[in-house]
Write a structure and sequence with these properties.
The structure is a single chain. By secondary structure, the protein is α/β, with parallel strands linked by helices. It folds into two domains: 168 residues, Rossmann fold, CATH 3.40.50.620; 91 residues, Alpha-Beta Plaits (2-Layer Sandwich), CATH 3.30.70. It has a four-stranded parallel sheet, with helices on both faces. It has a three-stranded mixed sheet with strand order 5-6-7, covered by helices on one side. α2 links the parallel β1 and β2. It is globular.
């Protein structure tokens, strides 16, 4: 079954001739970029990466390293979502505004450079979550080959491992704006604050994490099997001290653990 999906993905890409891949360096876009390069050749594939205040610098650096390892040309474009009406005030369709700007920029660059299609890394599991950005993708006629081939996240991880991609077991990452409850204003200062705290967890070798912003309170989500790390008093004190130094008054641990889209739990 997985082999059939993989062949279908290759067939879809083969028909496209030349593509621009919206490339973040995550599990999905890395896999898509690698297969596109294998099918179409280096000269017919471009990795397009948006630099943004909603993504930490280390994610950008990792994308650069991956593109270099795969010998794929990477182009960086600037995208400042905080200037988009409807984004900074964190409306429920925030992701729509973000994706519309991103893929409009992608379309302009693809047209300028003569690439036939623009691809995003959406997969079949993404349909199970609330994703307003899908509307923008459909409006701008962006192709989602992983979704078209009915590949799930687990499928992509397994195939990535077979291709020796270092991202096969990488933690899922969503832009930092997803850390804020709807209606809470997103500012560059708050993005820096949350990003700083997530970097703290990363440096302490926590694998799966999110730092959710609730004004003066930081709510930490980690994988259930990592919750026990916070039982250690010394570890806990270090985390609390660094979070308070970042500007939070209270530091809370979510006992339900890390899950994608937890901010959507209050979505009607």
């Amino acid at each position: 079954m997985l082999d059939q999906k993989y062949r279908k993905l290759k067939d879809i890409l083969m028909e496209m001739e030349s593509v621009v891949v919206a490339f973040s360096g995550g599990v999905d876009s890395t896999f898509l970029l690698r297969v596109a390069k294998d099918v179409l050749g280096t000269e017919n594939v471009l990795a397009l990466t948006a630099t943004s205040p909603t993504y930490p610098e280390y994610e950008l650096e990792e994308s650069r390293q991956l593109a270099t390892e795969m010998k794929v040309r990477q182009l960086e474009i600037e995208s400042d979502e905080l200037k988009i009406p409807g984004f900074a005030n964190n409306e429920r369709n925030r992701c729509y505004h973000c994706k519309k700007e991103l893929f409009t920029l992608c379309r302009e660059k693809a047209k300028e450079l003569g690439f036939a299609f623009i691809l995003d890394g959406s997969n079949l599991d993404d349909l199970d979550d609330i994703r307003p950005g899908r509307k923008a993708i459909e409006e701008l006629e962006i192709r989602s080959p992983l979704l078209e081939a009915e590949l799930t996240k687990n499928d992509i991880r397994l195939l990535s491992r077979d291709l020796n991609l270092s991202t096969w077991n990488k933690q899922p990452f969503a832009c930092l704006s997803s850390r804020f409850p709807f209606g809470t204003e997103i500012t560059s200062e708050r993005l820096i604050q949350v990003g700083r705290c997530e970097t703290v967890l990363r440096h302490h070798r926590v694998r799966n994490y999110r730092v959710r912003y609730h004004n003066e309170t930081a709510r930490i989500e980690v994988a259930p099997d990592e919750i026990e790390k916070f039982i250690d008093e010394e570890f806990r004190k270090e985390i609390v001290a660094e979070f308070k130094a970042a500007g939070f008054t209270y530091v809370a641990l979510d006992l339900e653990g890390y899950r994608t889209g937890s901010m959507n739990e209050v979505h009607p």
